[in-house]
Amino acid sequence: MTKFVIEGGHPLTGSIRPVGNKNAALPMLAACLLSDEPVTLHNLPLIGDVRTMLRILEEMGVEISQRGASVTLCARKVNTSAPDARLFSQIRGSLTLMGPLLGRSNRFLVDTAAGGDDIGRRRIDTHLQVLGGLGVSLHHNGKFELVADGGLVGGDILLDEASVTATENGIMAAALAHGTTILRNAASEPHVQDLCRMLTRMGCPIEGIGSNTLVIHGQKRLHGCEAHVSPDYVEIGSYIGLGAITPGELRIVGVVPEHLRMMQMVFVDRLGVRMHLEDTPDAPPDERYTLVIEAEQELRVRADFGGAVPKIDDAPWPAFPPDLMSIALVTATQALGTVIVHEKMYESRLFFVDKLIAMGAQIILCDPHRVVIVGPSQLVGHHVTSPDIRAGMALVLAALAARGVTTIDNVEQIDRGYEAIDAKLRAVGAQIERVTA
User: Catalytic site residue 286?
Assistant: First the structure.
């Protein structure tokens, strides 16, 4: 068991750089199964979930060579449609193996559920709907088996919700389906766009990238490619919150401006965070834009018209991301005013607020999806446990803003989504120590 011991109240000053997007990396790794030629991915985050996905692929026979944040995968020798059940159950991203394995062999078999954060029910019905629209049938007698007896055939499919992983599975299965597939009400997050661009490099034309209607022209075979994982906008959002509630100027190097619009609306327009974008045209492309979170913030909630209590809520892209709700919530505890946080997707994600209340935050849990926050609150150090990736990072933020020392247990959860976060934070002045029992 590993824990963080954090002394709060210290200024954070300097530059910090996000790694590649975890939610892009996992389906892009799975997409190597769509070809027998080598696929190379750059800017891969070296985090727990990625390591687990690489182990799953290696157990299936994928040849893997890795140098730093770049990895080359070749699925030429893969001859199974059944990933290792023990590894499969450890991460939610393992679900993205369904689409490419069905595309490769018309079959997918596993005898366990996918893992991931315990944040409430996470349905897979949309996956089954999309794959069913391509000719896949489900057999569920003790084991979970998907079969396309007649092969995958393109179709015009309306998703019952804009599920990211169901969209990704549909895209990857459709890439090797016969004919053209249209996915309507598709997810359009940056990580979905990364996957689409990778598949176009592999030889599958895709129209509508970045929109909610995708047209995938299926191919008989795909070839290898090189692809780049875009920076993790959730990690960037975490640093925005971190810079806002601690003293000092924090510079986030290598952001994508198009990924920041809704963060601007929530952090700046709603909570009063002062930040600005710097453009250095002669810098390398992945370092051109730097987001500066200015020093000595005076956070203030901006009320709605007529003085009404405002609301922060999440929705599919390009609205505010669900994975940043925990970060926005902690930031709001340090802002003057009252705000409602409405987390619409997962019925257990807000339950971590009891830990913030124990640290001194003024929060009312209205129901599983809504809390009222009255700020600012002086947070104090406490002994807490990380329940999942995003809540764990939110607790790190709270600890760094608190007076005194906080101990956070179960930081393996945080490591699943953030690469060497303690070392990164120490580099900008945080007093954080990793302790392994």
Answer: no
Please indicate, yes or no, whether residues 170 and 273 belong to a single structural domain of this protein. Answer: no
pLDDT in tens, 326-337: 999 999 999 999
**Is residue 389 situated within a structural domain?**
yes
Kindly give, in sequence order, each residue whose CB lies less than 8 Å from that of residue 63, ignoring residues fewer than 6 positions away: 73, 74, 75, 76, 77
Over the stretch 28-79, which tens digit does the pLDDT of each residue have?
A: 999 999 999 999 999 999 998 999 999 999 999 999 999 999 999 999 999 8
Closest CA to 175 of 136, 131, 222: 222
Same-domain status, 387 and 239: yes
For CA atoms 374, 375, 381, 385, the dihedral sign is positive
Beta strands in 280-368 (DSSP E): 289-293, 311-313, 337-342, 362-367
- Domain of 149, in residue numbers: 22-228
Of the pLDDT bands very low, low, confident and very high (cuts 50, 70, 90), residue 347 is: confident
Tell which of 175, 198, 228 closes a domain: 228
Catalytic residue among 49, 84, 117, 323: 117
- Does residue 318 have a cis bond before it (omega within 30 degrees)? yes
Answer whether residue 408 is part of any domain: yes
* CA gap 219, 180 in Å, rounded: 9
Please tell me whether residues 173 and 44 are part of one structural domain. yes
359 and 256 housed in the same domain: yes
Please measure the distance between the N-terminal and C-terminal CA atoms of the chain and give it in whole angstroms.
Answer: 6
Last residue in a domain, options 185, 211, 228: 228
**What are the tens digits of pLDDT across the range 114-151?**
544 443 345 789 999 999 999 999 887 777 889 999 89
Please tell me the total count of domains within the chain. 2
